[in-house]
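ok so i was messing around last nite and threw this chain in just to see what happens. nothing serious, just curious
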Amino acid sequence: MLVNMKEMLEKAKEGGYAVGLFNAVNTEMAIAVIETAEELRSPVIVGTAEVLLPFMDLERVASYLIPMAKRASVPVCVHYDHGLTEEKCKEALSLGFTSVMYDCSTLPYEVNVEKVAGMVKLCHAAGATVEGELGHVGDNAGEGKLLCPADFYTDPQMASDYAQRTGVDALAVAVGNAHGDYKFPPKLDFERIGAIAAATGLPLVLHGGSGLTDDDFRTAIGKGVSKVNIFTDLDKAGKAGYAEGIAKGEKTLMNLMPYGIRAMKETVRRKIAVFGSGGRA
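result:
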């Protein structure tokens, strides 16, 4: 069933577990995520991000994700992640996405507040939810890499003001996490997570989940994280699955697809087990 994030994440916050967001830029990824969620009776979030649109445009993603979510036997939220422009966030909303992350984290604080508060009014009027970001989660490599990530960590008191003034339904935090593959083991500021959760009362979101340890996830969830974003691990699992099929002599894409789906399903299964969302649908 197609839902937004609000009730899903509020239940997760109250129950001490987290729901996974798995970006799915093709139907094989979507099948792996939603089928596994159904098998484990877990709520789940699927979607895409603005940075991924060159690989699959927003309208095409909506054309397969939204019907699949509606047919699912568990709650499925279709989320537009890291929307960088108001235009694309509005497009996602018009296409039927039930949740939007409007990422204004690199803008001055007051501009972030103003823009996200406006998006909240628009999305709430349409029955959709909004995730904001305070602080900034950089990348592990490339143009988005932060030289000193601690300079961009989320401040708990500022987060309280941000939550009240924007009305967001969930808050992405910067606490030592980063997007992509970690070059060195990350050190998350768990006490900061707890302080932000206490200050805001919001479900918190951990971006850059691929590469963290199971203990990292469990501790972060215990401190107040209710949503964890996963893409890199899912993407790498699909590639490994195809490689296995090629190594076994498969000659066609049709015969390779089940290998990729099985490998991605195993990754989703492991994450759901760690996040504790199995049996919560």
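not much to say yet. The CA atoms of residues 241 and 258 lie 8 Å apart.
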